[in-house]
User: What shape does this take?
Amino acid sequence: MNDEQTRARFESLTLPLMKDAYNLARWLMRNEPDAEDVVQDSYLKAFRFFEKFRTEGNARAWFLRIVRNTCYDALSARNLKEKELVPEGEINDIEDTTPGPCASVVAKATIETVRKAIEALPVDFREVVVLRELEGLSYKEISDVAGIPLGTVMSRLSRARDQLQLLLRERKENDEL
Amino acid sequence: MNCEECREFIDAYIDNELDAATTITVKRHLRECAACAQFLEARKGLRALLGQPELAFDVPDSLRTRVLSALPVAPAKPKEDADRFRRRVVIPWFYVPVALAAVFAIVFGLALLQPGWIPGHAGNRALVAQVISGHVRSLLATHLLDVPSTDQHTVKPWFAGKLEFSPPVQDFAQRGFDLIGGRLDYLDNREVAALVYRRNKHTINLFIWPSKPDHAAPVQTFSENGYNVLHWERGGFSFWAVSDVRMEDLRAFADLEMQSS
Assistant: This one.
């Protein structure tokens, strides 16, 4: 394959993924300029390693993995990286097992409230929520993109949702005051 | 199954990630336990909130341009890597014929496995990627049309001043393929005409450039990454139609184009 063909193949595989890439970066970086930088870096990186990508593989998971890793690099490089995963104990404390109020309260939240709640999650939780709920990836794909075992995908997602429900309920209560 | 176990599986349950046996056990528990059923409802409420399309961010137009211009023409092939390779690796010459035979077998195996891959079509397959990327770029870069017009008598003369050939332009609006305009594009190392059609909400790009005079070639079909591509030649022109519409629809489009002359 000559250079022109390689570039054409690369573009036809990755350009349709720009929306997914930008959204993942935007959620993880939490601002527009950083997200744009990350997306550009990711395209350059992906192009550099394009020969290692096997055409029969899952292009979306492959590319999102690069975007995800570029985000993490950028977050730590800029010393912005949020606190590490909340320790297990704390999460169990906030786990909400009284289901009653959540259902009704959650139903009334607005787009802005939901966006803020997602952004308030620790980055490791935000990542699985965004990949699952907004990008629609399977557990297997999330495990590939985030580089974590399937079981961890399942438990992180579950904790992240618990936390989201709690955050949305708190915001709702604040709004009502 | 008790409540604790049910809560442990309930996320994988709503995500359709559980095996059949566990799904049945969770379902059974949910029928019997009001608290867990309510918990499931809360999860469904959350899912509905997160599923709102308005949550997604739009890609800034400037980013597309930025990425396309930042990409180098070819992936860099670092020279020092090659040197390092040469220095460290001692080739066991004994294995070379074996390796060659293996490569040969793999190449031919792959060639046989891939439908549509016939040695004579190798050149076309390379073009397929270019055609798809031309299509994708036209949709991304807000540069779908140079001459927006549904009138074939406006579109055809527009090309006259820009290209050294005059592409056949037809409207098939009555058959469900609306001509919406045309633009210049660059493919196969030359300027080509791109006609743009709409099928329901999908866009079809039809690239046209001169081939051998009076040469005709039957339709070849290609599918890659969710895009369908058709190629044919007639009346001294080479045609490439590309879209994400279904193959039957694209085929119907090609048939219309071929019958219309």
In short: DSSP finds ten helices and no strands in chain A.
